[in-house]
Amino acid sequence: MIEEDISKEDIISAYRNMVLERFLDKKLLGINRQGFLPFYIPNIGHEALHAAIGMAIRDDDFFYPYYRDLGSDIARVGLDFVLAQMFSTEMDNELGRDMPLHISNKAKKVGPVITTVGGHLMAATGVAYSYKYQKKPGIVITTFGDGATSTPDFHVSMNFAAVYSLPVLFICENNQWAISYPVEEQTKVEISKKAEAYGFTGIKIDGNNFIEAYHAIRNAIKDVEKNKMPLLIDAVTYRMGPHTTADDPNKYRKTIINEGDPLDPLSIIEDDIKKMKILNDEEISNIKNEINNMVSKEVERYEKMNKPGKETLFKNIYENEPWYITEERGEIE
């Protein structure tokens, strides 16, 4: 059943975003295996949650993602911005200085991805403090994996956010694995219940179901803004691929969810949109073909783009360039 705050067009848009993320994710993983992309963080299994986050965030909200947020990033900053960074092109906002999927965009209110697990949570909480102090509209939304809930940064951030009543929504993309460590061995309680220790609300949702995730995140954003208190969402999903391209999940994982299985987020939304008579099998197939062709063309285009020039090597580092840097610049020009 479609509720009043989500239309058929919204669901189709979300589905297209999920298909885009799936095909792009597979394409980038393949390029890495061929040796043309040095490193990649697969997102397969997270598509419904990413589409929900991307659709629920408003213009005034600040988004602080973690390294596995391809679909959310595309929704926030656009495919071109992401691919420019992914392939370290001359259009890359980071000037080729960071790993793939480590984006930032000040104009779009997207904080810089930090590689260290949970390391960005204190930064996101700090942004929320600035929002409250400056009385800015909107809230801060930050994402992280279940492994991050075992870090000191998570607990410090949760406590600080609660004590100072900060407008921050913590979303745990609980994909069951902290690299090779299963969630049941990380914690004795459900992740959603950890919020109680700090005096605010935690909820658990199905992160594989787009419609449920969208409503939960949208309502949580409203609650944070209205109640002027943080909130924690434990969004249960499943990492269908490896942690990174440096990982082999077959060495530690017995349960495998393959594409097309009932728990695959794309299977779930496709079943929903067919039951609701929003799209039929032929229309679903056409969308997949269209997006697959588009992804192939866009990736090929960005693979061929020029890299940042050597003159950018020292750009955006010093306000007043020291003499020895000036000398070094002369040596490479």
Structure explained in plain terms:
With 333 residues, the chain is α/β, with parallel strands linked by helices. The protein has one domain (8-332): Thiamin diphosphate (ThDP)-binding fold, Pyr/PP domains (Rossmann fold, 3-Layer(aba) Sandwich), CATH 3.40.50.970. Helix content is 42%, strand content 10%. The chain contains 10 helices and 7 strands. The chain has helices at 8-33, 47-56, 70-77, 79-86, 120-134, 152-163, 210-227, 265-275, 281-303, 323-332, and strands at residues 62-64, 140-145, 168-174, 177-178, 181-182, 201-206, 231-236. The strands form 2 sheets. It has a 5-stranded parallel sheet, with helices on both faces. A two-stranded antiparallel ribbon has the order 4-5. α2 packs parallel to α7 (210-227) and α3 (70-77) packs across α4. The longest helix is centred in the first third of the chain and has 26 residues, at 8-33. The chain is globular and about 65 Å long. The chain starts with 7 loop residues before the first helix and ends with a helix. InterPro entries: Alpha-ketoacid_DH_E1_comp, DH_E1, THDP-binding. GO terms for molecular function: oxidoreductase activity, acting on the aldehyde or oxo group of donors, disulfide as acceptor. It comes from Picrophilus torridus (strain ATCC 700027 / DSM 9790 / JCM 10055 / NBRC 100828 / KAW 2/3). Residues 15-308 form the Dehydrogenase E1 component domain. It holds the Pfam family E1_dh.
